[in-house]
Amino acid sequence: MNNILEKFILLFKKYYLGEEAYPLHNNTNLKLNNYMYSLHSGGNKNKNEIFYVIQRSPGAGLFSNLIFVLNHLKIAEKHKFTSFIDMQNFPTIYNEPKSIDGTKNSWEYFFHQTSNKSAIEVKKSKNIITTSNIFYKNFTSNPKKLIKIFKKKIKIKKKYLKVVQLYYDKNIKGNKVLAIHYRGTSYKTSAGHPFPPTLKQMNYIIDKFILKKKFDKIFLCTEDKKMFNQLKKRYSKKIISIKSYRSLSDDAFKIYPRKKHRYKLGKEILIEALIMSKCHSLLSTETNVSNFIKIINGNNKPNFYRIENGYNSTNEYYAMWIWYLKKILPKFFFGFGDTLNYSKH
Fold this sequence. Notes:
By secondary structure, the protein is α/β, with parallel strands linked by helices. The chain has helices spanning about 1-15, 60-80, 105-110, 120-125, 145-155, 160-170, 200-215, 225-235, 260-275, 290-295, 315-330; strands spanning about 30, 35-40, 45-55, 80-85, 125-130, 175-180, 215-220, 240, 280-285, 305-310, 340-345.
């Protein structure tokens, strides 16, 4: 078995990744073209097929995981590998202990599998390449570079599309709706991430958009309970939303307050993102959610207005305090101030 696998690995290196080949053994971790892989054989099935198993355990947010998968799907397609996304044997933060819709693979909670092979068949196949969980620096989140592979390989489960269509018909159709994706909680202290606006800045920008752009409604998507309640109170007649989990701190994946909580977190943000994609305009910082919306719509509708509030320090210690400091400082002394800049993309 080892001799057969060695030949497979040599072939893989020589013809697919273009590096000088050298012998390896079963279940060996391998670094090729700066990517880490595990290569092994699970049995004798599908001898003429090379399976490319994509895993990201424990992963991150739903759309961060999706963008990670899209980058690996490009690699699999380039080398004519059969891709399979495994978030069962390599669970993510969305995995539930019991099956959801008959599967324990959290990818399949929300999306169809990219291969028509079953997990058991893949596991028993002769030639298997398994990715690492590293999001490499040369991976991209640029929608323009991911639209083609998304449209070709990714299919969202129909039940979510039906929910979104019903919501659209009832609440959005016939109205000019501004979608707002506000990332608060952890974004206030995340190193290297965009600063979320303060409440005063949000009030300023929403008032400006309502006055100048004449929006009828605002679809509000945020995990920040305090910001949601404050905006809901001020703009009650215009705010629409779905019932989703919101908190005062970054605790969504640290607690389990309801049945199927982790699955519901993924379901809710997927539905919210799909609804936002049907709105007239989207106001947001640069996030994986906003990039997903551009990907599914081919960079067309909605009009995307990116919040320009600066970026946090890349130093994790300093990043914990800067947002709170800038919130209270005057603008002439490096504070946020009451206004907010944005740019159309």
